[in-house]
Amino acid sequence: MTVRELVDTLNLCIVSEGDLCRNINGCYIGDLLSWVMSNAQSDNVWLTIMSNINIVAVATLTDVSCIILCENVSPDEECLKKAQLQEINILKTDMSTYDLAVKLGAVL
Amino acid sequence: MDNNTLNIRYEVVAKDFSRAGEASSALKKVLRKLNISPDIIRKVSIPMYEAEINMVIHANGGYIDVDITPETIHVVLTDNGPGIADLELAMQEGYSTATDNVRELGFGAGMGLPNIKKYSDDMKITTQLGKGTTVEIFVNIPA
Ligand SMILES: Nc1ncnc2c1ncn2[C@@H]1O[C@H](COP(=O)(O)OP(=O)(O)O)[C@@H](O)[C@H]1O
Ligand SMILES: [Mg+2]
Question: Is residue A88 a contact partner of residue A19, using CB atoms and an 8 Å limit?
Answer without folding.
Answer: no
